[in-house]
Amino acid sequence: NAGVTQTPKFQVLKTGQSMTLQCAQDMNHNSMYWYRQDPGMGLRLIYYSASEGTTDKGEVPNGYNVSRLNKREFSLRLESAAPSQTSVYFCASKTRDGTYNEQFFGPGTRLTVL
Amino acid sequence: EDQVTQSPEALRLQEGESSSLNCSYTVSGLRGLFWYRQDPGKGPEFLFTLYSAGEEKEKERLKATLTKKESFLHITAPKPEDSATYLCAVQAPGSARQLTFGSGTQLTVLP
Known about the structure:
The complex is a heterodimer of chains A (114) and B (111).
Chain A: E1 4-7, E2 10-13, E3 19-25, E4 31-38, E5 42-49, E6 56-57, E7 64-68, E8 74-78, E9 87-94, E10 104-105, E11 109-113
Chain B: E1 3-7, E2 10-14, E3 19-26, E4 32-38, E5 45-50, E6 56-59, E7 62-66, E8 70-75, E9 84-91, E10 100-101, E11 105-110
Parallel strand pairs in B: 2-11
Antiparallel strand pairs in B: 1-3, 3-8, 4-5, 4-9, 6-7, 7-8, 9-10, 9-11
C-alpha cells in the first residue's frame, strides 16, 4: 500500500495563477481532508469530505475549492493564488467520518506564491 | 474554543538522556488525543491515540500518557533517529472530523 499520495511535491506560482493539488489514497478510506501547515500555527483544516460525493468547509476555506472525484481521490484547487497561500499542504484520510480514530497523512505539497 | 499548547517549543537531548514533552489542552469532553511524529519535509506520521484519562500507550522508546488536562510523551533513552517534531492534536464531541493541532515540539537528539 502506498497510503496517501500527493502531487506535485513542490510548486511555485505567481499571484493570480491557478493550480490543482492532487491527493489519492489506497486504504479504502471514506473520509478525506485537506490541511495547511504554517510556521508556528499548527495544521489547520481547509476542507474535508466525509464520504464520496460530499464536501464541507473547515477552518480556513477562503480562496480554495475542492472536488471529491471518487472514493480514492480528493483535489484542492486554488483559483487565483495569493502570497498568503504560501504554505505546505497536506492531504489526510481516515476510515470513516464521525469516528474518533486517527487520520493518515500524505507527504505534502510545498507551495510558494510570488 | 478548543486549544492545544505544546511545550517546550524545542528540546535538545544527549543520546540516552530521557525526557518528556507536554501537550496541554482545553476542550469540553475530550474524545481523542493524538500524537504524531513529523520528520523534516515529510507528512505527520501517526504514533498514538489516547481516549480517556489514565490511559497509557507505548511504542519502542516512546510512552504517551493522558490526564484530564494534559498529555505527556515520555522518551526513554532516546537515539538520534528519534529527532523529529512531535505534534499533538485533540478531537472534541461534535467535531469528529476536525483535529485541533498544537504547534509541535522540535526534538533534537545529539549523538
